[in-house]
Design brief:
The protein is α/β, with parallel strands linked by helices and 180 residues long. It is built from 8 helices and 7 strands, in the order βαβααβααβααβββα. The structure holds flavin mononucleotide. Flavin mononucleotide is lined by residues 9-13, 36-39, 84, 86-89, 100, 118-119, 123.
Length: 180
Amino acid sequence: MASILIGIGGGIAAYKMATVVSRLVQQQHRVSVVLTHGAQHFVGKATFAALCGTAPVSETYDDRFPLGAHIELAQRADLLVLAPATARLLASCAQGLADDLLATLYLNCECPVLCAPAMSSPMWDKPAVQRNVATLKSDGVLFVGPESGWLSCRKSGLGRMSEPEKLLEWIAAQLAESTS
Ligand SMILES: Cc1cc2nc3c(=O)[nH]c(=O)nc-3n(C[C@H](O)[C@H](O)[C@H](O)COP(=O)(O)O)c2cc1C
């Protein structure tokens, strides 16, 4: 059983994370969810509260965490998963901006970090985004996807977030590696 921190960004692929979280909970992992403000336009807190048994966190200043959620959640995490990782989230993490709870958590986490980007093809292809991905990879962040396929902008192309099954495989592989 591992302690897994799931950070959900503001993209349509956020809906896939309900499946991922449910499956991880069924595998007896302790799952905590952080929703960015953007993510809350796509998925609701109640969904993840019910799936995890604990309310998701979104605010940097939250009375439930006297030391700061960015400290307390990071301290107990065996793995941080950023999915969907938006262009904004990739940029904040790559540049160490700490401009919201999730980007601050990223800086505090000493555990492995797995990123599953999701965005339109033009966004993914943009040199600025690719520079941020290269920076994060050289910082040791693991990436799964994006895949080619149907995008919510009504086009097919590269930028679709990997499916829950693939994310779950990567999470299991990473947990096995860190405990071996
Ligand atoms: C319908 C819709 C879909 C979006 N999908 C994505 C997406 O897949 N990837 C992305 O990087 N941004 C997407 N955005 C833009 C982000 O929501 C926006 O950049 C936001 O500031 C991201 O903030 P966050 O990283 O804090 O969640 C979308 C916006 C809208 C309105």
